[in-house]
Request: fold
Amino acid sequence: MKGWMGKMLRVDLSTGKIRDEILDPSVAKDYIGGRGIGIYYLNRELDPNCDPLEPENLLVMATGPLTGTGAPTGARYMVMTKSPLTGAITCSNSGGRFPTELKRSGYDGVILSGRANRPVYLYIDDGRAELRDASHLWGQTTHDATDRLKSETDAKARIACIGPAGEKLVRFAAIMNDKDRAAGRSGVGAVMG
Reply:
């Protein structure tokens, strides 16, 4: 599977369980790119009648086969979910260094489900993933949260996060990465919140 890492990271925020999931090569072929992969998982697992801000919604962050290459627009990732703004399936995307580092972490994407009982963040390093407490980040701007996370993890870390708008479930909140890059369509930040 050229261009693919061959696995997704599945995170159940309700239970705290994290596991690798093999990305079926036929799915990668039939559902090309990060948007296609997100659509595949949402079509397969999401109840179309779920409330976008309830734990039954999924948030899929996915890269494509060109992410991390020198191809034009090859530094992007997609965020797929049911939108709290429109009530429909949505795709928001962003560029920067975060998408390439997500791919280099060994995953084609992350599937988040459930709801954590306290603020947490997902830390991925060298193919290992863990949920860590994020209570100390709650209420901070995305710039401040990014700086704080870099200081407690790695100065070279790449971060995608939400700020107060996402925390307060503002229906058009964005997910910010690399401080100034936004997956800003349709309230994906509220779903992360």
